[in-house]
Protein backbone atom coordinates (compact mmCIF):
# COMPACT_ATOMS: atom_id res chain seq x y z
CA UNK A 1 0.00 0.00 0.00
CA UNK A 2 1.25 3.48 -0.81
CA UNK A 3 2.37 5.71 2.01
CA UNK A 4 -0.44 8.02 3.07
CA UNK A 5 -0.37 11.47 4.59
CA UNK A 6 -1.12 11.49 8.29
CA UNK A 7 -4.58 12.99 7.83
CA UNK A 8 -5.57 10.24 5.38
CA UNK A 9 -4.02 7.59 7.60
CA UNK A 10 -6.06 8.79 10.59
CA UNK A 11 -9.27 8.53 8.57
CA UNK A 12 -8.48 4.98 7.45
CA UNK A 13 -7.42 3.86 10.93
CA UNK A 14 -10.59 5.28 12.43
CA UNK A 15 -12.75 3.46 9.90
CA UNK A 16 -10.80 0.25 10.49
CA UNK A 17 -11.38 0.44 14.24
CA UNK A 18 -15.08 1.33 13.94
CA UNK A 19 -15.66 -1.75 11.79
CA UNK A 20 -13.91 -4.06 14.27
CA UNK A 21 -15.31 -3.43 17.77
CA UNK A 22 -13.93 -5.56 20.62
CA UNK A 23 -11.16 -6.93 18.38
CA UNK A 24 -7.55 -6.73 19.58
CA UNK A 25 -5.56 -5.24 16.70
CA UNK A 26 -1.74 -5.46 16.93
CA UNK A 27 0.15 -2.25 16.22
CA UNK A 28 2.08 -4.15 13.55
CA UNK A 29 -1.16 -4.40 11.55
CA UNK A 30 -1.20 -0.64 11.08
CA UNK A 31 2.59 -0.33 10.87
CA UNK A 32 2.79 -2.86 8.02
CA UNK A 33 -0.26 -1.49 6.23
CA UNK A 34 0.95 2.10 6.20
CA UNK A 35 4.72 1.44 6.15
CA UNK A 36 5.09 3.54 9.29
CA UNK A 37 7.01 3.15 12.51
CA UNK A 38 5.12 1.88 15.55
CA UNK A 39 5.93 5.11 17.34
CA UNK A 40 4.08 7.07 14.63
CA UNK A 41 1.15 4.67 14.78
CA UNK A 42 1.01 5.08 18.56
CA UNK A 43 0.83 8.84 18.16
CA UNK A 44 -2.00 8.47 15.63
CA UNK A 45 -3.92 6.18 17.94
CA UNK A 46 -3.55 8.68 20.77
CA UNK A 47 -5.33 11.23 18.58
CA UNK A 48 -8.07 8.74 17.67
CA UNK A 49 -8.50 7.83 21.34
CA UNK A 50 -8.90 11.47 22.33
CA UNK A 51 -11.57 12.03 19.67
CA UNK A 52 -13.44 8.79 20.42
CA UNK A 53 -13.66 9.52 24.11
CA UNK A 54 -14.21 13.25 23.76
CA UNK A 55 -17.08 12.84 21.31
CA UNK A 56 -18.71 9.93 23.14
CA UNK A 57 -18.02 7.40 20.38
CA UNK A 58 -16.34 4.83 22.60
CA UNK A 59 -13.13 3.84 24.31
CA UNK A 60 -9.80 2.83 22.82
CA UNK A 61 -7.82 0.54 25.09
CA UNK A 62 -4.11 -0.10 24.63
CA UNK A 63 -2.58 -3.41 25.72
CA UNK A 64 1.18 -3.40 26.17
CA UNK A 65 3.54 -6.26 25.38
CA UNK A 66 4.46 -8.42 22.42
CA UNK A 67 0.90 -9.76 22.16
CA UNK A 68 -0.65 -6.35 22.78
CA UNK A 69 -2.36 -3.84 20.56
CA UNK A 70 -5.48 -1.69 20.65
CA UNK A 71 -9.13 -2.59 21.16
CA UNK A 72 -12.09 -0.32 20.38
CA UNK A 73 -15.16 -0.58 22.63
CA UNK A 74 -18.22 1.32 21.35
CA UNK A 75 -19.96 3.18 24.16
CA UNK A 76 -22.77 5.70 24.19
CA UNK A 77 -22.76 8.29 27.00
CA UNK A 78 -25.79 7.71 29.21
CA UNK A 79 -26.90 11.34 28.82
CA UNK A 80 -26.93 10.89 25.02
CA UNK A 81 -28.89 7.63 25.29
CA UNK A 82 -31.34 9.24 27.70
CA UNK A 83 -32.09 12.05 25.27
CA UNK A 84 -32.56 9.52 22.46
CA UNK A 85 -34.90 7.35 24.54
CA UNK A 86 -36.94 10.35 25.66
CA UNK A 87 -37.60 11.19 22.03
CA UNK A 88 -38.73 7.60 21.43
CA UNK A 89 -41.02 7.77 24.47
CA UNK A 90 -42.73 10.81 22.99
CA UNK A 91 -43.40 8.87 19.79
CA UNK A 92 -44.60 5.79 21.68
CA UNK A 93 -47.14 7.91 23.56
CA UNK A 94 -49.06 8.65 20.37
CA UNK A 95 -52.68 7.47 20.96
CA UNK A 96 -52.94 5.75 17.57
CA UNK A 97 -50.26 3.27 18.64
CA UNK A 98 -52.58 1.47 21.06
CA UNK A 99 -53.37 -2.07 19.88
CA UNK A 100 -55.88 -4.61 21.24
CA UNK A 101 -54.61 -6.17 24.46
CA UNK A 102 -52.95 -2.89 25.49
CA UNK A 103 -49.94 -3.49 23.26
CA UNK A 104 -48.14 -0.72 21.40
CA UNK A 105 -47.44 -0.56 17.68
CA UNK A 106 -43.65 -0.25 17.38
CA UNK A 107 -42.89 -1.84 14.00
CA UNK A 108 -42.39 1.51 12.28
CA UNK A 109 -39.72 2.52 14.79
CA UNK A 110 -38.03 -0.88 14.64
CA UNK A 111 -37.98 -0.54 10.87
CA UNK A 112 -35.78 2.55 10.93
CA UNK A 113 -32.09 1.58 10.79
CA UNK A 114 -30.90 4.73 12.59
CA UNK A 115 -33.19 4.05 15.55
CA UNK A 116 -32.36 0.36 15.69
CA UNK A 117 -28.63 1.11 15.53
CA UNK A 118 -28.84 3.55 18.43
CA UNK A 119 -30.83 1.05 20.51
CA UNK A 120 -28.18 -1.56 19.75
CA UNK A 121 -25.39 0.83 20.73
CA UNK A 122 -27.13 1.55 24.02
CA UNK A 123 -27.51 -2.16 24.81
CA UNK A 124 -23.90 -2.79 23.79
CA UNK A 125 -22.81 -0.06 26.20
CA UNK A 126 -24.91 -1.47 29.03
CA UNK A 127 -23.52 -4.99 28.58
CA UNK A 128 -20.00 -4.16 27.40
CA UNK A 129 -18.41 -5.84 30.42
CA UNK A 130 -20.55 -8.99 30.49
CA UNK A 131 -18.24 -11.11 28.30
CA UNK A 132 -21.05 -12.75 26.33
CA UNK A 133 -20.38 -15.27 23.55
CA UNK A 134 -23.62 -14.71 21.61
CA UNK A 135 -26.68 -12.48 21.48
CA UNK A 136 -29.99 -14.34 21.55
CA UNK A 137 -33.54 -13.34 20.71
CA UNK A 138 -36.79 -15.02 19.72
CA UNK A 139 -38.32 -14.39 16.32
CA UNK A 140 -39.46 -11.97 15.05
CA UNK A 141 -39.59 -8.36 16.28
CA UNK A 142 -36.52 -8.68 18.48
CA UNK A 143 -34.32 -9.73 15.55
CA UNK A 144 -33.25 -6.25 14.35
CA UNK A 145 -32.42 -5.19 17.92
CA UNK A 146 -30.37 -8.34 18.49
CA UNK A 147 -28.39 -7.84 15.29
CA UNK A 148 -27.77 -4.17 16.04
CA UNK A 149 -26.52 -5.03 19.53
CA UNK A 150 -24.36 -7.86 18.21
CA UNK A 151 -22.78 -5.60 15.57
CA UNK A 152 -21.47 -3.26 18.29
CA UNK A 153 -20.26 -6.17 20.41
CA UNK A 154 -18.80 -8.20 17.53
CA UNK A 155 -20.85 -11.26 18.49
CA UNK A 156 -22.91 -13.79 16.54
CA UNK A 157 -26.70 -13.85 16.82
CA UNK A 158 -28.69 -16.93 17.82
CA UNK A 159 -32.39 -17.06 16.89
CA UNK A 160 -34.93 -19.03 18.87
CA UNK A 161 -37.73 -20.25 16.61
CA UNK A 162 -41.41 -20.71 17.31
CA UNK A 163 -41.21 -23.87 15.22
CA UNK A 164 -38.20 -26.00 14.33
CA UNK A 165 -36.89 -25.47 10.79
CA UNK A 166 -35.85 -28.42 8.65
CA UNK A 167 -33.01 -26.36 7.21
CA UNK A 168 -31.42 -26.01 10.66
CA UNK A 169 -31.14 -29.70 11.44
CA UNK A 170 -32.02 -31.30 14.76
CA UNK A 171 -33.31 -28.97 17.43
CA UNK A 172 -34.14 -28.81 21.11
CA UNK A 173 -37.75 -27.80 21.76
CA UNK A 174 -39.49 -26.90 25.00
CA UNK A 175 -42.96 -25.83 26.04
CA UNK A 176 -43.37 -22.65 28.03
CA UNK A 177 -46.23 -20.65 29.48
CA UNK A 178 -46.92 -17.31 27.86
CA UNK A 179 -46.94 -14.76 30.64
CA UNK A 180 -49.72 -12.66 29.07
CA UNK A 181 -52.43 -15.15 28.14
CA UNK A 182 -51.14 -18.22 30.06
CA UNK A 183 -51.16 -20.31 26.89
CA UNK A 184 -48.75 -23.20 26.42
CA UNK A 185 -46.42 -22.41 23.52
CA UNK A 186 -43.34 -23.96 21.98
CA UNK A 187 -39.90 -22.61 21.16
CA UNK A 188 -36.98 -24.36 19.49
CA UNK A 189 -33.25 -23.88 19.09
CA UNK A 190 -31.08 -25.76 16.61
CA UNK A 191 -28.47 -27.94 18.34
CA UNK A 192 -25.73 -26.49 16.10
CA UNK A 193 -26.70 -22.91 16.90
CA UNK A 194 -25.18 -22.81 20.37
CA UNK A 195 -22.25 -24.53 22.02
CA UNK A 196 -22.57 -25.94 25.51
CA UNK A 197 -21.52 -23.66 28.38
CA UNK A 198 -21.95 -20.56 26.21
CA UNK A 199 -22.52 -17.16 27.80
CA UNK A 200 -25.66 -15.61 26.35
CA UNK A 201 -27.00 -12.05 26.22
CA UNK A 202 -30.78 -12.02 25.67
CA UNK A 203 -32.32 -9.07 23.81
CA UNK A 204 -36.06 -8.58 23.20
CA UNK A 205 -38.34 -5.82 22.01
CA UNK A 206 -41.15 -5.98 24.58
CA UNK A 207 -41.78 -7.61 27.95
CA UNK A 208 -44.88 -7.69 30.05
CA UNK A 209 -44.80 -10.65 32.43
CA UNK A 210 -41.64 -12.12 30.92
CA UNK A 211 -42.94 -15.52 29.86
CA UNK A 212 -41.04 -15.57 26.56
CA UNK A 213 -37.74 -14.56 28.15
CA UNK A 214 -38.30 -17.09 30.93
CA UNK A 215 -38.83 -19.70 28.21
CA UNK A 216 -35.53 -18.77 26.56
CA UNK A 217 -33.77 -19.06 29.90
CA UNK A 218 -35.25 -22.53 30.42
CA UNK A 219 -34.25 -23.51 26.89
CA UNK A 220 -30.67 -22.41 27.56
CA UNK A 221 -30.49 -24.82 30.47
CA UNK A 222 -30.71 -27.63 27.92
CA UNK A 223 -27.45 -26.31 26.47
CA UNK A 224 -25.84 -25.74 29.89
CA UNK A 225 -25.57 -22.09 28.88
CA UNK A 226 -25.35 -19.09 31.19
CA UNK A 227 -27.38 -15.89 30.81
CA UNK A 228 -25.02 -12.94 31.29
CA UNK A 229 -27.64 -10.24 30.78
CA UNK A 230 -31.17 -9.44 29.61
CA UNK A 231 -32.06 -6.27 27.71
CA UNK A 232 -35.59 -5.20 26.81
CA UNK A 233 -36.50 -2.24 24.65
CA UNK A 234 -39.92 -1.58 26.27
CA UNK A 235 -41.30 -3.15 29.45
CA UNK A 236 -44.84 -2.88 30.76
CA UNK A 237 -45.22 -2.22 34.47
CA UNK A 238 -48.93 -3.10 34.52
CA UNK A 239 -48.28 -6.58 35.93
CA UNK A 240 -48.59 -8.05 39.39
CA UNK A 241 -45.76 -10.55 39.11
CA UNK A 242 -42.73 -10.74 36.84
CA UNK A 243 -41.23 -14.05 35.72
CA UNK A 244 -37.83 -12.48 35.09
CA UNK A 245 -35.44 -10.61 37.38
CA UNK A 246 -32.15 -8.83 36.77
CA UNK A 247 -32.90 -7.21 33.43
CA UNK A 248 -32.63 -3.69 32.07
CA UNK A 249 -35.19 -1.83 29.99
CA UNK A 250 -34.71 1.27 27.87
CA UNK A 251 -38.34 2.38 28.08
CA UNK A 252 -41.09 1.72 30.60
CA UNK A 253 -44.80 1.69 29.72
CA UNK A 254 -46.68 2.55 32.91
CA UNK A 255 -50.24 3.00 31.64
CA UNK A 256 -52.37 2.24 28.59
CA UNK A 257 -56.03 3.21 28.50
CA UNK A 258 -57.77 2.21 25.23
CA UNK A 259 -60.87 4.22 26.19
CA UNK A 260 -59.15 7.55 26.69
CA UNK A 261 -56.35 6.71 24.23
CA UNK A 262 -53.78 7.52 26.87
CA UNK A 263 -50.30 6.01 26.83
CA UNK A 264 -47.62 6.76 29.41
CA UNK A 265 -44.07 5.81 28.45
CA UNK A 266 -40.92 6.88 30.30
CA UNK A 267 -37.20 6.03 30.25
CA UNK A 268 -36.62 2.53 31.62
CA UNK A 269 -34.59 0.93 34.38
CA UNK A 270 -31.26 1.50 32.59
CA UNK A 271 -31.58 5.17 33.50
CA UNK A 272 -32.72 4.71 37.11
List keywords for this structure.
single chain, 272 residues, alpha/beta, Arc Repressor Mutant, subunit A, Rossmann fold, six-stranded mixed sheet, two-stranded antiparallel sheet, 7 helices
**CATH T-level topology of the largest domain:** Rossmann fold
Give the spatial strand order of the biggest sheet: 6-5-9-10-11-12
Q: Indicate how many domains the architecture comprises.
A: 2
The number of distinct helices, counting runs of at least 4 residues, comes to: 7
Mean pLDDT: 93
Cα distance spanning the termini: 50 Å
The CATH C-level class name of the largest domain = Alpha Beta
- Our estimate of the beta-strand percent is 25-35%
Helical coverage, percent range: 25-40%
What integer value in Å does the Rg equal?
Answer: 21 Å
The biggest sheet amounts to: 6 strands, mixed
Helical/strand content category: alpha/beta
Number of E strands: 12
CATH architecture designation of the largest domain:
3-Layer(aba) Sandwich
3D shape: globular
| Order of secondary-structure elements | HHHEEHEEHEHEEEEHEEE
> Which runs of at least 5 residues are low in confidence (pLDDT < 50)?
none
Amino acid sequence: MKKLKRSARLVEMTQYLLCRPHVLIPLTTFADQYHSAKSSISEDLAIVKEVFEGEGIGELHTLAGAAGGVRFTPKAPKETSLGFVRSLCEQLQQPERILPGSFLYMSDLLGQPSIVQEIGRTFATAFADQAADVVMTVETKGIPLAYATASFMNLPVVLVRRDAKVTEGSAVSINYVSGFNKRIQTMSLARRALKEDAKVLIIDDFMRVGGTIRGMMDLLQEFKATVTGIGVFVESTEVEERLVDNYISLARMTAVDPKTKRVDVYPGSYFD
